């Protein structure tokens, strides 16, 4: 996941922009959940599994639907988003 996030930031930079603070913050939240699951998994796999099943999917889905869509729009237009009308 961390490699994906770095790649996404590089794509934004290549399009002439950067990930906004809220986008980077969401990435960190997702990574923190994974880190918590890794730590839990060392001692209690069931708690780690519960954390991954309850918290990660919803946050990941929301991130992709909202925040990533804005990044995709910026990248695909090379930062030249124009208003119609």
Key features?
single chain, about 80 residues, mainly alpha, 4 helices, elongated
Notes on the structure:
With 85 residues, the chain is an all-alpha fold. The chain has one domain (17-76). Helix content is 76%, strand content 0%. It is built from four helices and no strands. The protein has helices at 2-14, 21-41, 45-54, 56-76. The longest helix is centred in the middle third of the chain and has 21 residues, at 21-41.
Note the overall shape. elongated
Structural class: mainly alpha
Regions with little confidence, pLDDT below 50 for 5+ residues: none
| DSSP strand content | under 5%
Q: What is the C-alpha radius of gyration, as a whole number of Å?
A: 16 Å
Count every beta strand, where a strand is a DSSP E run of 2 or more residues: 0
Number of domains: 1
Head-to-tail CA distance between termini: 39 Å
> How many strands, which pairing sense, and closed or not: the largest β-sheet?
none
**What order do the SSEs take from the amino end to the carboxyl end, as H and E?**
HHHH
Report the mean per-residue pLDDT as an integer. 91
Number of helices: 4
Helix proportion: over 70%
Topology:
Elements: H1 2-14, H2 21-41, H3 45-54, H4 56-76
């Amino acid at each position: 996941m961390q490699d994906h996030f770095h790649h996404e930031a590089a794509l934004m930079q290549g399009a002439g922009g950067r990930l906004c603070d809220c986008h980077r913050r969401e990435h960190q939240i997702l990574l923190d959940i994974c880190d918590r699951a890794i730590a839990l998994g060392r001692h209690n796999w069931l708690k780690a599994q519960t954390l991954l099943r309850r918290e990660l999917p919803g946050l990941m889905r929301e991130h992709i639907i909202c925040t990533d869509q804005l990044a995709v729009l910026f990248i695909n237009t090379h930062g030249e988003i124009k208003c119609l009308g």
